[in-house]
Amino acid sequence: MLSLALIQEALQCIPPQDRQIWLKMAMAIKSEFGNAGRDVWETWSQQADNYKPLDAAKAWRSIKGGAIGIGTLIHEAKLYGWKRDLPQHAPMSLVERNRIKIMRAESSRLAEIEILARQKAATSKAQKIWKNSYLPNLNHSYLKAKQIKPINIRQIADSLVVPLLENRVIVNLQFIQPNGTKRFLSGGKVKGCYALVGDVISGQTLYICEGWATAVSIYADQGHAVACAMNASNLLHVGQPLRIEYPKSTLVIAGDNDRLSELNGKGNTGVDAATNAAAILQCGMVLPVFPLDAPLE
Hints:
Number of helices: 11
Distance between the termini: 44 Å
Structural class: alpha/beta
Number of strands: 9
Radius of gyration: 22 Å
Helix content: 40-55%
């Protein structure tokens, strides 16, 4: 059995920014060491600029093992120049450390260029689709199921189209199918972007929640604008620019309560993310209150 120290050494050759590689390494480590390998994987993960503790915790919990073994990690490390026959205790030379540092930096630079190019293309596509979209059908299945109005959205074919904004410019779209299935434009930016329901009025409350349907419900109930971040991990990233853009507005995080997930031992991502965002932004927070006999879904 390979030691965790050796795996930790091999990981230093592998850039953690690529999500697919990141998940593969988690699967490989967990298949070999179980939860004992989590600290090694998390320490390596934290070297990435896009590292998110909640995302990492969720990813690790979701891995059940099986398909990918520790051999995948060894193979990946060798592709980046790791030499398996180096003694475990042998210190890496300065030349070797610098080579790996340069290679990692170049890999990150190229990945960033690719990400920005894909985001730029998605922004252009989003604006063209939005221009060609039309007012939604009030009898759209999703609207009827949620019993909400189509505020600040459009429709294309049978999909509702929700615009995601950055600096008040459309940079991405969320498509909602009649059955509730959701997807974004491939390569489009989501982090820090939001869909707006209602008009933000300086000095008045501005809510931040996860999904568009939730935003419409909050707006109908409270009468104040709502920015929907699309997912729990994005609440903070949306709140930070909004706080700067609307300094006189009172921010309130309206979190989701993932009760079923919590009962199944998978934690409550909605509450955790909302609590974290509200603490960092030093703003208010509200959570849904359910009757004791309320269904879990």
